[in-house]
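Re-running the complex after MR caught last week's input typo. The corrected sequence lines follow. Everything else is unchanged.
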Amino acid sequence: MTTAEQDVSGAGSQPLSPDEVRLINAWWRAANYLSVGQVYLLANPLLREPLTPAHVKPRLLGHWGTTPGLNFIYAHLNWVIKRDHANVLYIAGPGHGAPGVVASTWLEGTYSELYPEISQDEAGMCRLFRQFSFPGGIPSHASPDTPGSIHEGGELGYSLSHAFGAVFDNPDLVAACVVGDGEAETGPLATAWHGNKFLNPAHDGAVLPFLHLNGYKIANPTVLARIPHAELEALLRGYGYAPIFVEGDEPMAMHQKMAAALDAAFASIRAIQQKARTGGGTAERPVWPMIVLRSPKGWSGPKTVDGKQTEGSWRSHQVPFTMEKPEHLGLLEAWLRSYVPEELFDAAGRLRPEIAALAPVGDKRMSANPHANGGALMRPLKLPDFRDYAVAVQQPGGANAEATRISGGFLRDVMEKNAANRNFRVFGPDETASNRLQDLFEVTSRAWDAEILASDDHLSPDGRVMEILSEHTCQGWLEGYLLTGRHGFFSCYEAFIHIVDSMFNQHAKWLKTSKEVAWRRPIASLNYLLTSHVWRQDHNGFSHQDPGFVDHVVNKKAEIVRVYFPPDANTLLYVTDHCLRSWNRINVIVAGKQPSPQWLTMDEAIKHCATGIGIWEWASNDRGAEPDVVMACCGDVPTLETLAAVDLLRQYLPDLKVRLVNVVDLMSLQPKTEHPHGLSDADFDELFTRGKPVIFAYHGYPWLIHRLAYKRANHENMHVRGFKEEGSTTTPFDMVVRNELDRFHLVADVVDRVPGLGAAAAYVKQAMRDRLTEHYHYVREHGADMPMVANWRWPGAE
Amino acid sequence: MTTAEQDVSGAGSQPLSPDEVRLINAWWRAANYLSVGQVYLLANPLLREPLTPAHVKPRLLGHWGTTPGLNFIYAHLNWVIKRDHANVLYIAGPGHGAPGVVASTWLEGTYSELYPEISQDEAGMCRLFRQFSFPGGIPSHASPDTPGSIHEGGELGYSLSHAFGAVFDNPDLVAACVVGDGEAETGPLATAWHGNKFLNPAHDGAVLPFLHLNGYKIANPTVLARIPHAELEALLRGYGYAPIFVEGDEPMAMHQKMAAALDAAFASIRAIQQKARTGGGTAERPVWPMIVLRSPKGWSGPKTVDGKQTEGSWRSHQVPFTMEKPEHLGLLEAWLRSYVPEELFDAAGRLRPEIAALAPVGDKRMSANPHANGGALMRPLKLPDFRDYAVAVQQPGGANAEATRISGGFLRDVMEKNAANRNFRVFGPDETASNRLQDLFEVTSRAWDAEILASDDHLSPDGRVMEILSEHTCQGWLEGYLLTGRHGFFSCYEAFIHIVDSMFNQHAKWLKTSKEVAWRRPIASLNYLLTSHVWRQDHNGFSHQDPGFVDHVVNKKAEIVRVYFPPDANTLLYVTDHCLRSWNRINVIVAGKQPSPQWLTMDEAIKHCATGIGIWEWASNDRGAEPDVVMACCGDVPTLETLAAVDLLRQYLPDLKVRLVNVVDLMSLQPKTEHPHGLSDADFDELFTRGKPVIFAYHGYPWLIHRLAYKRANHENMHVRGFKEEGSTTTPFDMVVRNELDRFHLVADVVDRVPGLGAAAAYVKQAMRDRLTEHYHYVREHGADMPMVANWRWPGAE
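Corrected-run output:
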């Protein structure tokens, strides 16, 4: 029997004195009162005069249903924190219940410290009410401006993975994570429970989940509230938790039950951690406690409205009633007065001292927990000199390397240099080795606290490589880790990063809004390495081919997003180093893992990447004059094909003046007015000319280049090749042929667009057609690429 | 005790005779042999001569690890199907195991029937081997060209929701769904287990999940394989299943165990269905059986390679060994010969008759199950005349309606007219009523087979509205339902449809490839209604504001995707009807649910939507001449703001010739060469002129319009307004102001771009600034929009 299970038996006890129950209940009433006030009131916050329509907001917005449960848990956590000096972060999965979260932070004083105009008095209370869901005020969900929050809760599903991310490497921290029963139906949440198999009780903190069964979503019951008790308990035990049930609707009894449950849960957490930290070891994964709170939706709200059940019903989900019927004014006043505000607040509108004394003080307040403003705790990573990992490149194409493997060596040493600080982890869905970052395993392991066999490869409870076959969980863990002031790196198959499109959206929105909140400190950037990319899905084919994440990313605010396409290992090293030094951004790096020719020495790579875009003189023969054609490329495979096309052009059309432009920093294509990395029009025209044909080979969907460059002078002459959803399980070169991104098509594109080539044009086009025919025959005969294609070298390369 | 649990006790029995075991094992060996052959061999398929390097493929691709388990289950299902005349669809979650799936379909003869060149003889076997993962051949995953498959399995997580979707309204069908233990870690799969709360044993078929614990992913153990047995069993019971465990690695014993497990499972399914279908009723949700198969990864493959464990290890995940070492040739030959092919195939290369006799015949073969080529079963929907639901519009803006509520009336009658056919369902994450489609509940309910309380609203085991708070599950159910020949409609909050971006990708890819497979019949389109859109998130704010799904959609093949922005209720009716009649497409409809002015009579709506784009003469004053400015709009809110801007222009600049162009069919903006709905350049120029300013108010991210229209003659004069990630919980009009899409900004845009306005320009711009200032003050003072804005009417409208 686990510690948590032993303690559950104490749940029938009465751990609180009558006076303690009274005080905790008073706090809860105060928080509920303030919550209702935020939803409904514009004025008369303490009901000093009878309520009139003028006191009520013209537009009633907000979510009441989940709020009293959030307030109930918050009040009880405060009790435990104060008594036990616990270090607790509050994560409200139902962030819709912002009125409750905000109310508690105001009661604790944090809100007024950060926003002095929302003072702890009647005037401040009035402003607190007015600002909620009000133009120019605060939004309706917990958001970056909410003290103590790292979780918006607007899009449901991510609270529990955020909680695990927050406690990794924070041994003293407890993330109290409220999971709504609506949220519990989402896939990301359903798998996030398994975070306990990746948590090390010796060096990580604890997650204390509260499954809040209030029974209803917007208009429906919830699945977990409508399965038999035994089935629910089996499910939670199956997830590896020891659930403690707190069920009912009578507040006084519920206070005792919740206090007992929390006592049991915190005791269990302490016992587990103590055992793991005193040599008890990690032989067996502990069964962590969790709490199931089953309480009415809209608890303490109106029982019925217009004769229909409201408390304990989905009708409490948002605003339980509007003001369209005059009699609702009385209903609202009676509801508000049911909390007896005059008992809770003094004449000045301050929370009465004996109630206020329930809250912890200073940083122990959940609303002031330093981990919730993680940037303030963030220590920059110690980074080795990335130049030390350079691939020696005697001449362009004169070396071969797997780009991600090289950067894996760099990441290994980043991991090692920061091991003592325990503030860097690498995340990925079972793909770290597949993505050639396996050097990391020289200095750390995969985190794993489930069963380990002798035959296993680098598994350890103390591992710092986080692998679970859930992109959602990887992303959620990483977000939680970053938001609490640490650093991370996420490597993923390019196609499947779309699985977290929506999580990316929410993180980008969080960052954008955070920058507008004065007290939030910058956090480390979220760094994606997208590899196993569209052009090299040799094992997988069409289902694994999608380069569209970048299209999705660039819709977000320019100050937040960066996209890099390093064409070889040395440029990837530069970009990786750069991203790890940055903050408050989302960096997307797209790079291949397959053996490929290397183009730039480290010095050249630094120069090239610092600008983000540039002419490769060694591949150009325009010698500073206006070229006949610009061959632009972005991405490792397009760069290879473009260079091979330039080689062909030299053979077939030696007099043609060709300029090669390589793009590392995709945002350089946008106008400077649109993105801080955008080139000025003058610089852009200098590179791309104002009237010559540009053949642009791009890694992803070709339209993105047009979307970025449509304002440029020479845009109408830009012809872009890229992925157009053609492909299957085939050879690497056949993939580019199917999408017409190969060297032969590129040469044909040049010939089609450069005027004045005369008879040579037809000759070269026929030659390219012949080469393609040769390819078609060869690949279907041999199932492999023609040697002269597969082994092509840049002229002069060894 | 449930039926399944009772039967489990029989799992220790020996249901098969020795001869039956021998034959089933022979089938399994044959399927395994063919699987290895597909991965490795180019020639010498029956090993008639000693293996040489020339017989081996130059590029070795494929996934062996999961394959023997898939083959094992397939062989045993055949046994049951044949004996019991069962109707079984096979869904291989690990579609990576295509060599196995394809092998079984070849053994059954279906493959050769559909692809005669892959005949059931030595030559056909040789072509079968050669084509796998070979250029011009078949891809490495189960794919549309795989007989019997509705599930690619390339991207993991969706097998179980596909299985539930397939059996809804197919009472005789059993979907045997193999869930890999890697896939089981994904969020979508983790919540898909709850499909059993939405399954009606009386009218739906059964899902029989096989959780296949082979223990490893690419390089890692799996979570579910490394938790204690009791925990795993609790988890599965918590999900509502009675698990039957089949565990081991000794084939003969395993055959008996699997046969006993299947006997128990099918008996349990029959008992549950019989009870529900003979008046035993649905008072209690049944506990459905499932099977846990714990077997070695790469079972029957090489035990070790180069001294390292391979069978039962992640090293079996893909190709267990390459041919780089000469000694591996012998390893391969020994492995292949271990199946004793000469016992399995006759001299001609045909499966020996006594083994072939194990397979069911005709449509009972899983590879020939008609449900897997659902288009062949599809009956068109009976549709009422959408014109009967028209909102009466006496003059533009002269009526007010909630567009989605109107189309909800139409959908209600679609539901009713097809009730007897049981081939139409509506899907959505708890938002059907919120999205104003509640008229559906006049004729059906929400599907719900968990506990029902008297106070519940329209819940029934027989409901046809599918609501679970998981966009993944809704999408997976709908895909499974469509792929088996039925019809559906998915309504979703616009922002959160991004949650299924990646599932959309895979379905679009499936449709694209299906069209290239001659024997696949077209299936009904996947229809999305995106509402509760970016401009009207009054209750929710920034986290709920994202119109970017359309950007994602348009990257897919033009013949697959359609995007519609009906500006009012009558156009939405037309578009909804149109989408429900279409096939093999993904239709995205974006429409608002809030009360809004109505612009077009039904006759006008039909004419407008049939073209997809057009001039609204009544809002234009260019009278057929070249206008001074084109005001284009796409989306309901942009249309409203554009009309209000036109109204202002008439007041301030009555001599200005304004043309209003409204876009319903977004793809009309693309060139005809890029999309079948694209306008010809001549038609485009006719609408947008070749040189006049175009002020384009678009619903989503403005860049998308540029990406679609960049090739058009007048593109450089197009100025697009749209959503630029500004917003919060605020008023509807303040939202458009923050994004500069409002009437005042649009008028200012006109003034900035139309030349020759002289002093009027400055005057009008100042007037617009004043109106904006007035707005800012009003909204911050009152928390609501200025009455003259909120109540604006088109001139002449009542």
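None of the earlier attempt is carried over here. Chain A is about 35% helix and 15% strand. Chain A has three domains: 3-363, 386-596, 612-790.
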